[in-house]
């Protein structure tokens, strides 16, 4: 297979030591599987592409990559670093409590230059409700260890609107996160995905979702606190020291091509959106037998691509770059979405500059209300 | 064939009492349809009719049957089963000498049966009572026969007991049609007079008129005149429905068939009009002619303003085969350009609405149906208005008149209380109560049409556990103490949400409308105040709170396809809404203002 344009590579590790209550990603408890054939399959799948010359970012996520036996994880990273020789950003998701200085040191020496640490909260009650296995102290230890071995680009994930927590609880998490002086923070309002035990608890009334007003207040607080700490909001849920925005995720929001390998991983390249089978055994079998692991294939039309690009671009604070959009889709965004743009400019949710269209601050908490108007023509 | 060997008859029945099945059985018995061609329920030809189990347009079929060595021509004229098509039913009945009154053996007489039977009597039809479905386990033919005797004064011993489905008793009934129904009068030597009792439009042949010849005869290649419009046409084809169209050279006195005469538009032909020969015209037209009378009005606006020409084209197409529906351009300050449409009744409106959406791909926003009013202004001038927005300033109104109907309700005695309460809430005045037997009762009310036009029937069904039936007939306009309720959305008055209602309930209803609207209008990105004004004074306010949080937190590569779907759906939801200022008002909101229930 020949690939000319994909710029990013995502690798999905389908294992966790235990599933968190809110998580709907494809992952299985480690003890049910021998991970070796799965990692071998991942490597085989990656080998089917000619990745070397174009891949600029790699992101190993999951699941929990750090729940893998060290040897397997290092082997995988070594292989990827070997075949992709022009990578500027190499991220691995790390769980606090699963990494220590020696492991981090190995990762760093293998070429990983960015860590994304799944913190979620600094309140033990919230961590317990979410089903997380680490403590706030584990987070601090992981960050210090990463600094010690040389990491200069660390990201933390936080979850807001956790049931039964108030605005003060969330503020505590935010302040703890900024105290650690990291380069990047993502803040996600808790969503209740079908099939998760969190959703089940909500439906059965055992927990109550945070009310809309509090949810919004938390979001606005995140923007304020993080900006004050020098982390500039560059996407609806993402904040970074200027210059250290996550290049990998920016590929998604620019709607540029990427390749995903592993069970349930999605790809977007050569004009096709594909998704791999989620079942780990099925995935491994298909790869071993030399078959295609993809389950769904979609070929968006040019107009659909333009709509996808607009929706994704608008999530960035820089919004739609008009000339980039024109170049990429062949359409003039101001023309194509004239009615929606005019509407939302007049109600103050969009602003047009000489080279872009972007959401205003007041549009951010209700962005889907605006984005939906760009989803089709 | 002399008129003494012709029988013209119709079947009147409540929905689902087996009219179409009986028609099929008669066609079988007379050999008019062979097995191969037979489709169930031949007479109903439009899709919607089949789906709803009702007959919208009348049609006719000619059968031949030999009895005691003589060949008889039997013309069955089908009638629409619904109250909205009262006038059409009356014309179809006027074309006959006899009517089969079909009653379900387990359901008994229903309000519609009564209304149609009265119409049959008014149009001088001989009635043959027929109790159908006697083979069903729940059948109580004797009880039903007693009801028939009680209501119509026809001896219970004269009822035919049949099962149209199995064919039981149908041969006897066929014999009864010949022996008991009168033949048409022989007026063959008089100048031609034929009644148009129905018509439809054929794409290639123009208008096809369904006629009954009362006097003289019709021949091809003669010049005919429509006495109502005065227009003349050349007859290009005459024929009978056998049941497929079969050309004949002449339709003689007493016969039923069709006329094709190069008539382009359905609107050029009025049901009830008389066809005569241009060179030797009848002295006077056949009695009973009326222009179709629309009683229910509603505005249709295209969801997207650019669809206006498309909507107009769609309405034009619809009037081609439904002349009783009307549309006139209308522009509303709040809703833009659309059409005010007139219907015979509520069912008629639903049918048009359904055909509009089925046959044309247009998103339509429809306002709540209203009735016509007559307004007398202070300068003494009276005029008809069919929309609250046409109401003059209240200082200029001397009197407001609203349409009243005679309403018949048949129900079980165990639900009398609930139904009387409902009638009282809807300003109905009791005319009389009639016990049809120990368990059944018939109410007759004088009711304001506006009160029963919307959800009255649903409520009636609810109260009576689906048992009660109703029918109504327009009686006239009368003065009432009416006021207009205005609704302001985001401080802007929305004419399409205005209502004319009785002063005594104006305030409670006004408040209720606000609650309904608050539920029906989705949240926006800003607070939307709703206000209600009665007689120009604001009496209540509600607020639709703004969206405070609506954003997908995580959207990375693998989420794109799924998220795009969700966003598209979110946008789709906005489509059937009308923007007024910055506020999107969904279709349900316009209808919700008429919902007068408590919760």
How does this structure look, described?
The complex is a heterodimer of chains A (377) and B (599). Chain A has 377 residues and is of the alpha/beta class. Chain A has two domains: 7-252, TIM Barrel, CATH 3.20.20.70; 302-374, Arc Repressor Mutant, subunit A (Orthogonal Bundle). Helices cover 40% and strands 20% of the residues of chain A. Chain A has 15 helices and 17 strands. Chain A has helices spanning 35-47, 70-83, 101-110, 124-130, 136-149, 167-179, 197-203, 212-228, 247-253, 280-288, 302-315, 322-329, 333-336, 338-346, 367-371; strands at residues 8-13, 15-16, 28-29, 57-62, 89-94, 114-120, 154-160, 184-189, 232-235, 238-240, 258-261, 266-269, 272-276, 294-298, 320-321, 350-352, 356-359. In chain A, the strands form four sheets. Chain A has a nine-stranded mixed beta sheet, with helices on both faces. In chain A, strands 12-13-14 form a three-stranded antiparallel beta sheet, with no helix packed on it. A three-stranded antiparallel beta sheet of chain A has the order 15-17-16. The two termini of chain A are 34 Å apart. Chain B has 599 residues and is α+β, with helices and mostly antiparallel strands. Chain B folds into five domains: 3-180, P-loop containing nucleotide triphosphate hydrolases (Rossmann fold); 193-277, Translation factors (Elongation Factor Tu (Ef-tu), domain 3), CATH 2.40.30.10; 296-366, Alpha-Beta Plaits; 374-480, Alpha-Beta Plaits (2-Layer Sandwich); 483-592, Elongation factor 4, C-terminal domain (Alpha-Beta Plaits). Chain B has 14 helices and 34 strands. In chain B, the strands form seven sheets. Chain B has an eight-stranded antiparallel beta sheet with strand order 11-10-16-7-8-15-12-13. In chain B, a hairpin with a 2-residue loop joins strand 31 and strand 32. The longest helix of chain B has 16 residues, at 560-575. The termini of chain B are far apart. Classes of the chains: A alpha/beta (377), B alpha+beta (599). Chains A and B meet through strand 8, helix 8, helix 9, strand 12 and helix 11 of A and helix 13 of B.
């Amino acid at each position: 297979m020949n690939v000319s344009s994909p710029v990013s590579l995502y690798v999905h590790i389908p294992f966790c030591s235990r599933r968190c209550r809110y998580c709907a990603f494809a992952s299985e408890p480690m003890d049910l599987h021998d991970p070796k054939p799965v990692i071998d399959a991942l490597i085989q799948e990656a080998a089917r592409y000619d990745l070397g010359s174009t891949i600029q970012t790699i992101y190993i996520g999951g699941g929990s990559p750090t729940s893998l036996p060290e040897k397997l994880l290092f082997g995988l990273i070594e292989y990827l670093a070997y075949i992709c020789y022009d990578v500027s950003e190499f991220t691995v998701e790390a769980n606090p409590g699963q990494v220590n200085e020696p492991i981090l040191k190995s990762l760093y020496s293998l070429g990983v230059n960015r860590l994304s640490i799944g913190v979620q909260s600094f309140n033990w009650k919230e961590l317990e409700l979410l089903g997380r296995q680490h403590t706030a102290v584990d987070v601090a230890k992981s960050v210090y260890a990463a600094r010690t071995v040389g990491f200069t680009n660390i990201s933390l994930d936080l979850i807001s609107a956790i049931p039964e927590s108030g605005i003060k609880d969330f503020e505590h998490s935010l302040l703890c996160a900024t105290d650690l002086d990291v380069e990047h923070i993502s803040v996600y309002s808790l969503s209740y995905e079908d099939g998760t035990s969190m959703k089940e608890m909500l439906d059965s009334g055992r927990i109550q979702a945070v009310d809309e007003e509090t949810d919004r207040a938390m979001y606005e607080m995140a923007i304020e606190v993080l900006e004050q700490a020098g982390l500039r909001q560059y996407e609806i849920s993402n904040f970074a020291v200027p210059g250290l925005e996550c290049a990998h995720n920016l590929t998604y929001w620019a709607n540029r091509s990427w390749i995903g390998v592993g069970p349930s991983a999605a790809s977007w390249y050569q004009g096709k959106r594909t998704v791999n089978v989620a079942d780990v055994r099925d995935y491994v079998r298909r790869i071993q037998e030399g078959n295609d692991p993809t389950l769904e294939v979609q070929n968006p039309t040019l107009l659909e691509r333009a709509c996808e690009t607009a929706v994704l671009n608008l999530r960035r604070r820089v919004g739609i770059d008009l000339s980039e959009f024109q170049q990429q889709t062949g359409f003039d965004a101001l023309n194509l979405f004239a009615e929606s743009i005019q509407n939302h400019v007049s109600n103050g949710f969009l602003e047009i500059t000489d080279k872009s269209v972007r959401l205003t601050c007041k549009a951010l908490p209700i962005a889907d209300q605006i984005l939906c108007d760009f989803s089709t023509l | 064939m002399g008129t003494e060997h012709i029988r013209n008859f119709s079947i009147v029945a409540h929905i689902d009492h087996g009219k179409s099945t009986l028609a099929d059985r008669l066609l079988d018995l007379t050999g008019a349809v062979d097995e191969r061609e037979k489709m169930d329920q031949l007479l109903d030809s439009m899709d919607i009719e089949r789906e709803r189990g009702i007959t919208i347009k009348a049609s006719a079929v000619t059968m031949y049957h030999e009895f005691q060595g003589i060949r008889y021509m039997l013309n069955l004229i089908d009638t629409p089963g619904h109250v909205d098509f009262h006038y059409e039913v009356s014309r179809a009945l006027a074309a006959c000498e006899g009517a089969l009154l079909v009653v379900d053996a387990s359901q008994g007489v229903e309000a519609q049966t009564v209304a149609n039977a009265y119409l049959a009597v008014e149009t001088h039809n001989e009635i043959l009572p027929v109790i159908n479905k006697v083979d069903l386990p729940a059948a109580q033919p004797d009880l039903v026969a007693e009801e028939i005797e009680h209501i119509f004064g026809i001896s219970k011993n004269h009822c035919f007991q049949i099962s149209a489905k199995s064919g039981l008793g149908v041969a006897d009934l066929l014999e009864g049609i010949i022996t008991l129904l009168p033949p048409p009068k022989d007026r063959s030597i008089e100048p031609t007079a034929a009644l148009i009792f129905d018509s439809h439009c054929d794409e290639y042949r123009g208008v096809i008129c369904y006629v009954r010849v009362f006097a003289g005869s019709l021949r091809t290649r003669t010049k005919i005149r429509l006495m109502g419009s005065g227009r003349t046409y050349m007859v290009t084809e005459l024929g009978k429905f056998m049941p497929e169209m079969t050309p004949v050279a002449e339709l003689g006195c007493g016969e039923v068939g069709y006329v094709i005469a190069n008539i382009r538009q359905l609107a050029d032909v009025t049901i009830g009009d008389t066809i005569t020969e241009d060179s030797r015209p009848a002295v006077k037209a056949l009695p009973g002619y009326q222009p179709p009378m629309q009683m229910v009005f509603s505005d249709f606006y295209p969801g997207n303003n650019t669809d206006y020409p498309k909507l107009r084209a769609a309405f034009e197409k619809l009037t081609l085969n439904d002349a009783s529906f009307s549309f006139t351009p209308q522009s509303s300050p709040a809703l833009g350009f659309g059409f005010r449409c007139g219907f015979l009744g509520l069912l008629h409106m639903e049918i048009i609405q359904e055909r509009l959406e089925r046959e044309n791909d247009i998103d339509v926003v429809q306002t709540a149906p209203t009735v016509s009013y007559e307004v007398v202004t202070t300068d003494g001038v009276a005029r008809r208005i069919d929309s609250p927005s046409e109401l003059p300033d209240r200082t200029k109104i001397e009197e407001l008149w609203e349409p009243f109907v005679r309403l018949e309700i048949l129900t079980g005695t165990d639900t009398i209380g609930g139904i009387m309460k409902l009638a009282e809430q809807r300003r109905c005045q009791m005319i009389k109560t009639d016990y049809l037997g120990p368990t059944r009762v018939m109410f007759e009310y004088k009711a304001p049409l506006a009160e029963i036009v919307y959800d009255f029937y649903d409520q009636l069904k609810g109260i009576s556990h689906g048992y009660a039936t109703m029918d109504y007939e327009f009686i006239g306009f009368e003065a009432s103490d009416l006021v207009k309720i205005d609704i302001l959305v985001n401080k802007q008055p929305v004419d399409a949400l205005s209502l004319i209602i009785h002063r005594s309930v104006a305030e409670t209803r006004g408040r209720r409308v606000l609650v309904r609207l608050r539920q029906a209008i989705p949240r926006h990105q800003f607070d939307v105040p709703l206000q209600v004004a009665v007689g120009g004074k604001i009496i209540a306010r509600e607020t639709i709170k703004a969206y405070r949080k609506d954003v997908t937190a995580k959207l990375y590569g693998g989420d794109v396809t799924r998220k795009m779907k969700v966003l598209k759906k979110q946008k789709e939801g906005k489509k059937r809404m009308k923007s007024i200022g910055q506020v999107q008002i969904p279709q349900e909101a316009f209808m919700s203002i008429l919902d007068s229930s408590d919760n």
